[in-house]
Amino acid sequence: MSSRERILGRVRRALADVPDDPRPYEETVVRGYLREHGQRSVARTVDLLAENLADYRAIVHRCADGRLPELLARLLSARGSRSVVVPPGLPSQWLGAVDVPLVQDLAASTAAELDEVDSVVTGCAVAVAETGTIVLDGSPDQGRRRITLVPDHHVCVVRVPDQVVSSVPRALERLDPKRPLTWISGPSATSDIELDRVEGVHGPRTLEVVLLGGS
């Protein structure tokens, strides 16, 4: 008897006294948990997102629609970026004021090549206020997952208020579980047993989030 057969046999024995339930899984699982904590206005929800992003050491900027190209150019210049990788569906006007080489998100790009790129600019799928989390799903304005993991500097643009939700359950309602989801809460970081924090271990060392909205 193989290990697989032993494990499956134990599972069958453990479930032997569990009655069959013909109902779909979605109906048998009780989902009585809170979908969000408290009632907040749209403005307060965006403020909470900004607070929690900053708490995770992301750098937060607020920007009116017409000022985004200027802001992105300034952020990349302040960073000293000599090149920036862009997803294929990123609005071209966003980087209209940027005067450094733009690197396209190509399937043939290697990790070593992406490591030579200083920054990446993307959109996002949704942002969660209660957790300060940005979610990417590989849509055209976000590109492949690796372009947001290899370069050391990530600038993520969040459209406010359309892409901001209060809670994780609200975010899940908008996301397709079949897509490659990346959940980002601040810059990449880890700590050892003494809680010494090290940033940039398995992703960007610096995360800047632009909350885009208004005139």
Automatic annotation (TrEMBL):
Every LUD domain range: 102-212
SUPFAM superfamilies hit by this protein: NagB/RpiA/CoA transferase-like
Q: A Pfam family for this UniProt protein? A: LUD_dom
Q: Which InterPro entries match?
A: FTHF_cligase-like_sf (IPR024185), LUD_dom (IPR003741), NagB/RpiA_transferase-like (IPR037171)
From the Swiss-Prot or TrEMBL record, give the protein name.
Lactate utilization protein C
Q: Which organism is it from?
A: Streptomyces salinarius
Q: What is the lineage of its organism?
A: Bacteria, Bacillati, Actinomycetota, Actinomycetes, Kitasatosporales
